[in-house]
Amino acid sequence: MISLSAVSRHFGTGASRVAAVDQVDLEIPGGEIFGVIGYSGAGKSTLIRLLNGLERPTAGRVVVNGTDIGAASERALRQVRPKIGMIFQHFNLLWSRSVRGNIALPMEIAGLPKEEIRRRTEELIGLVGLDGRGDHWPSQLSGGQKQRVGIARALANQPDVLLCDEATSALDPETTDQILDLLAGINQRLGLTIVLITHEMHVVRRICTSVAVMEAGRVIETGPVAQIFAAPQQAVTQRFLGQIASAEPKRLRIGLHPDAAQRLLEIAATPELGISLNNLTREGDVFRGELLIRPEALTDGIAQLRDAGIDVWEG
Ligand SMILES: Nc1ncnc2c1ncn2[C@@H]1O[C@H](COP(=O)(O)OP(=O)(O)OP(=O)(O)O)[C@@H](O)[C@H]1O
């Protein structure tokens, strides 16, 4: 369980003082996948760094699994940090070490016996789906594979909490989903708490159970993901939800006579036009179905359809 009570982190003094995190209260139950979303400069990185003691609060209390992280001595922090794993946008792998060497490193630092390190490293390679790649160098891996190494390394010391700092922001959409699914699977299997920061609502929707929306250092809205998606209260949250709406294809119902059907099939068979066709059925003299039009193709797409004599309406 993670608890933040009236936590602030200010930088600078006088007129140049910045409240990177400002009076934040949050409760994150154990085992949850908790998202923190906000635009650049909202304070997400500072917030996540407060959770592993890389930043100390200017005011308030940060408690992670019973340890008051904000008040802990450096020595105490060294003891709790292995139980708080972290993964990063740019993976932060050591280029001079193989996959195996990167994953083993935290266990070497913790002084685990060689045989145990060897056994756990192999286990972790399997867990993150990198079988057969243990001897590869980071430079030989794709972005998604590098992040898999990052995840395995973060799990090496069997943490209770995994912090993810924009962990999928450098990845393409398909790889993003694979990494998110891996994180969700790890959360289920190992029961650890995941806190992730992101500027993409898609990430929140795909794996988070709850979310906090940040703006100017403050948490302006928080709750279960289903509730926030159903009834977003704040303008910033609504803008983030707009990201999803605008990334999804527009669905339009169509009705057309057989002579227009041939033209429509040609349009739908040209991928560059961004239009695809679903569930085309015939009812008497009319074909009915659903068109999916990618947002960037919407204006041109509808014009093309109208030119071809095809009526479209929303529904
Ligand atoms: N070490 C620092 N010294 C001074 N100001 C800082 C420091 N770290 C962060 N800030 C400021 O605090 C504010 C919040 O920054 P933070 O990096 O936490 O936001 P963010 O939401 O993670 O943004 P991004 O996604 O761009 O990293 C910004 O105005 C930033 O300039």
Q: What's the topology here?
A:
Elements (H helix, E strand, L loop, with lengths): L1 E10 L6 E11 L4 E6 L5 H8 L7 E6 L2 E2 L5 H7 L3 E5 L10 H11 L4 H14 L15 H13 L5 E5 L7 H18 L2 E6 L2 H7 L2 E6 L2 E7 H6 L4 H13 L2 E7 L1 H11 L6 E9 L2 E8 L4 H10 L3 E4 L1
Parallel strand pairs: 3-8, 3-9, 6-7, 7-8
Antiparallel strand pairs: 1-2, 1-4, 4-5, 9-10, 11-13, 11-14, 12-13
Bound molecules: adenosine-5'-triphosphate.
GO molecular function: ATP binding; ATP hydrolysis activity
Organism: Falsigemmobacter intermedius
Family: Belongs to the ABC transporter superfamily.
Describe this structure in words.
With 315 residues, the chain is of the alpha/beta class. The protein has two domains: 2-246, P-loop containing nucleotide triphosphate hydrolases (Rossmann fold, 3-Layer(aba) Sandwich), CATH 3.40.50; 250-314, B family DNA polymerase, N domain, alpha/beta motif (Alpha-Beta Plaits, 2-Layer Sandwich). The chain has helices at residues 44-51, 74-80, 99-109, 114-127, 143-155, 173-190, 201-207, 225-230, 235-247, 258-268, 298-307; strands spanning 2-11, 18-28, 33-38, 59-64, 67-68, 84-88, 161-165, 193-198, 210-215, 218-224, 250-256, 275-283, 286-293, 311-314. Strands 6-7-8-3-9-10 form a six-stranded mixed sheet, sandwiched between helices. Strands 2-1-4-5 form a four-stranded antiparallel sheet, with helices on one face. A four-stranded antiparallel sheet has the order 12-13-11-14, with helices on one face. A hairpin with a 2-residue loop joins strand 4 (59-64) and strand 5. The longest helix has 18 residues, at 173-190. The radius of gyration is 24 Å and the shape is globular. Bound molecules: adenosine-5'-triphosphate. Adenosine-5'-triphosphate (ATP) binds at residues 11-12, 18, 20, 38, 40-46. Residues 11-12, 18, 20, 38, 40-46 line the site of adenosine-5'-triphosphate.
